[in-house]
Amino acid sequence: MDESTRADLANRFRYAISPEDHARVPAYGALSLALANSKVAIDLLYAVRPEQRNSMLIFAGLHDLALLGHEDLTPLYDDLRRGGGVSPDEFAARVFAVVEADPSLLTPYLDRATQTNEVNRSATIQAVLRVLCARGLREVNLVDVGTSAGLNLFADLLQVRSTDDGDPLTLVSESLSGPWPSAPSARVVSRVGLDPNPLDISNADDLRWLRACLWPEDVRRRERVDAVVSHAPNWPQRQILAGTATAVLDEALALAEPGVPTLVLHTWVAAYFEPAEQAAFGKRMRELTATRDIYWLYLEWPRAVPHLGPPEAHEPPPRAGASQIVVTEPGGEPTSWGWSHSHGHWVSLDPSVLGPKA
Ligand SMILES: C[S@@+](CC[C@H](N)C(=O)[O-])C[C@H]1O[C@@H](n2cnc3c(N)ncnc32)[C@H](O)[C@@H]1O
Predict the structure, then answer these.
(1) Where are the domains of the chain?
(2) CATH architecture, range 121-354
(3) Whose CB has fewer CB within 10 Å in the chain, the N or C terminal residue?
(4) What span, in angstroms and rounded, lies between the C-alpha atoms of 201 and 205?
(5) Ligand 1 centroid distance, CA of 39 (Å)
(6) What is the mean pLDDT of residues 211-221?
(7) Quick one: pLDDT band at residue 356, thresholds 50, 70, 90?
(8) Mean pLDDT of the chain
(9) Residue 358 confidence (pLDDT)
(10) Distance (Å, rounded) from C-alpha 356 to C-alpha 353?
C-alpha cells in the first residue's frame, strides 16, 4: 500500500463520524480517531474489496464480536449501550487494544458489506413523497435499491416529528427549511426491495448483523430498528429480490402495479458500487426516467457517487457531512432538492422545491 492510500484509509476512520455526530456518539467518535492511528486497522480496511472500504465495516465487525460474546468487547459494548460509566477515551483505548492484539478476529468480516438499515432515513423519503403528492403524484410503487432488510419500504406509514415523543416507531427529524411539507404522502401501492444480500429479519444471524451495523451508543436508533422489525409482519407485504442494482432492477420494476408511477430510490447504496456499476446504473436510471413514468430519488454523499453525476446544489449543505437529496421526475433532469443528515436527523429542502412547481 502506498503512502497516499494509507493516508486515505486513515481518513476513512478519522472522518467516519460527522462533526455533529461526535456529540451524539462520543465513544464512536473517539474510536474513529483512535483507529485512524492504528496501522493494523488500516491494513484490515485495505484487505476489504475497494467498493466496501468504508470504516463502518470494521466498526460493525467489532460490534458483532461484542454481540457474540467476546470476553473484552462484550462487557465494554454492554456498558456503552446501557449508558454506563465507560468514558469515550477509555472505550476507544480498550477497543483499539483488542484490534491491535488480534486483528485476525476481524478477518471473517472483511468480505462482508456494511448493511446498516437506517429507518430514520424514511423521514427524508417521506418528505419527498409528500412534496411529490403536492405536485400531483397520488399513488406510487416503491422500489428500494440496496434495501438491506427492507425497513425503509414503510416510509409512508411512520410518524415524523421534530422532537422525540418517546415512541420507538416515531421518526425524529428536524426541518431546517421551515414547516414540514403539509401534503399527505403519496399512497404506496406496492413495495419492492432489492439487495445482493437481503437481510431476513426472521433469521437470528441476519438480525444480529443488522444490529451490529448500528452504533451502540445511539439507543434510540436501536430501539427504532427493533420496533420496526417487530411491527413489519403486520404492515403491508414487501417483496425483496436478491441481486445487484444493475442485475435485478428490471425484475423489480416488473413487480410494480401497472398504471401507477414508480419511485426507484436508494439511500446510502450507490456509494458502495464499483465505479462502472455506478455509471451503468446512473445511465439506466436516466433512460428509465426519460422514457417511462418513473421517478428516481437518491440520498447519497455526493463525493461518494461521482459516476452518478450528482447535480449542482443550489445551496451548500447546512451542516458538514450531509447527504444530498436528488430527485428526477419523469422526463426531467436529476435535480438537487436539498440536504439531509445521513441518518435523517434533519432535512433541509430547497425553497424552490417547497414552492409551486415552476
Ligand atoms: C449502507 S446499506 C444502506 C441500506 C438502506 N438503503 C438504508 O439506507 O437503510 C447499503 C446496502 O447496499 C447494498 N448493496 C451493496 N452493493 C450493492 C449493489 N451492487 N446493488 C444493490 N445493492 C447493493 C448492501 O448489501 C447494503 O444492504
Answers:
(1) 3-109, 121-354
(2) 3-Layer(aba) Sandwich (3.40)
(3) C
(4) 9
(5) 28
(6) 94
(7) low
(8) 96
(9) 39
(10) 7
